[in-house]
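Lab meeting, item 3. Inverse folding demo.
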């Protein structure tokens, strides 16, 4: 009986810090220029959370509060809080436990999920499964990353790419056929050393040496990751279309992870999609890791119609990659 429950997204919320870091300002920090950044990545500006007292859980809680307000919900009604993040406030307690307490979701259980830029898609699959199994009726799935906390602002190959933000959704049982229909998720650590943060975990705990060697920052071999990401995101997007018998005409929107405009364009081309069906806001926010996909859903929320076929797709560190097929249910 429980297998008949379909999960749906019933609300979308977000949080963006006020501080805008423009390409022009980055020109003062590292040897780069606005034109290079725009043409190679599509990014014009990104947001930074400057307040040292605030971090990932704060942003996730703000996004969650917006969702609760939209649905006029008492936080005590929330059954579970999942925060997708690679920049939790602490190693433990989890950002999700902090978020849960900040919003007063006192009856929920909460946990973090680490799948880097695919974090939201992985967390959505977990959250949907909690609803589909009948274990939960209201699950908050939030993507939140304070990327500025792991960025070396003297490294021009990474500091231009990332921004801070949170966004997320509420998942509830659907009353009809609309909702979350299918997921394809993949991961592999083969070649994953091309995109990682080496320090701070149990392999390289913090020492003077790890700090001196800048091991607590993101390190990326951009060209290698670019190739992997372009293949991975396009392959999995085409695979979920084929698995569900969808043609490009059937799809209303592609919601791609926002890492690089060229990766997004290549994915849309492989799917045969018109560019106007692709959500792109990378120019305003850069790569906000686990927040990019729900941030797109938030920005486009007024253009979405009930029953729209939507594909979410991402590729990121781990490596992790995946796609979700859903019918918009609001
Ligand atoms: O979201 C998680 C997954 N991450 C991704 O999907 C990111 C994938 N990678 C990328 O998006 C791109 O590789 C980057 C945007 C990071 C870099 O673009 P690229 O076209 O791959 O550039 P490149 O690394 O091949 O560098 C080309 C040139 C190099 O100079 P030389 O060696 O050709 O003389 C770089 O040193 O551009 C130089 N360069 C820069 N120039 C100005 C690298 N960074 C910059 C910069 N400003 N910020």
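The presenter then showed the designed sequence:
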């Amino acid at each position: 009986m429980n297998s008949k429950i379909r999960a749906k997204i019933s609300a979308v919320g977000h949080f963006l810090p006020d501080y805008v870091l423009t390409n022009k300002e980055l020109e003062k920090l590292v040897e780069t220029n606005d034109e290079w950044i725009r043409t190679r990545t599509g990014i014009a500006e990104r947001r930074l959370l400057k307040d040292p007292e605030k971090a990932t859980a704060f942003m996730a809680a703000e996004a969650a509060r917006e969702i609760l307000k939209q649905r006029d919900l008492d936080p005590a009604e929330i059954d579970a809080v999942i925060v997708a993040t690679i920049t939790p406030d602490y190693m433990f307690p989890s950002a999700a436990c902090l978020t849960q307490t900040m919003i007063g979701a006192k009856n929920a259980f909460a946990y973090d999920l680490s799948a880097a830029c695919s974090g939201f898609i992985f967390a959505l699959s977990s959250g949907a499964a909690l609803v589909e199994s009948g274990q939960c009726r209201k699950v908050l799935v939030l993507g939140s990353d304070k990327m500025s906390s792991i960025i070396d602002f003297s490294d021009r190959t990474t500091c231009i790419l990332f921004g801070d933000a949170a966004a997320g959704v509420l998942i509830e049982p659907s009353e009809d056929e609309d909702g979350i229909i299918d997921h394809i998720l993949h991961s592999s650590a083969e070649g994953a050393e091309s995109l990682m943060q080496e320090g701070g975990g149990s392999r390289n705990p913090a020492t003077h040496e790890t700090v001196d060697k800048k091991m607590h920052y993101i390190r990326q071999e951009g060209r290698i990751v670019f190739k992997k990401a372009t293949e991975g995101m396009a392959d999995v997007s085409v695979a979920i279309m084929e698995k569900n018998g969808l043609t490009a005409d059937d799809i209303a929107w592609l919601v791609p992870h926002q890492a690089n405009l060229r990766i997004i364009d290549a994915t849309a081309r492989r799917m045969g999609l018109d560019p106007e069906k692709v959500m792109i806001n990378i120019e305003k926010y850069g790569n906000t890791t686990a927040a990019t996909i729900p941030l797109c859903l938030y920005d486009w929320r007024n253009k979405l119609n009930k029953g729209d076929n939507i594909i979410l797709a991402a590729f990121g560190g781990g490596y992790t990659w995946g796609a979700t097929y859903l019918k918009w249910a609001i």
